[in-house]
Amino acid sequence: MSRFLLSCTTCSTRIPYKDEILECFKHAPMGGYKAWGVAGPVFWTPGVANWADIDRIKASAVGVGLKTCTEVYGPTFPTNSVSDARSAANYMVHLFDAAQKLNSPLVVITGGRRTPEGIQATIEGIKELLLFIQSRPIRLALEPHFGSQIMYTEDYDAIFAEIVSPQVGITLDSGHLHSASVDWLGLIRKYPERIYNFHVKDHVGTQSVSLGTGEVDLRGYIRELHAIDYEGALAVELEVKDPENLPKYCADAY
Question: Backbone phi, then psi, for 75, in 5-degree steps?
Answer without folding.
Answer: -75, 170
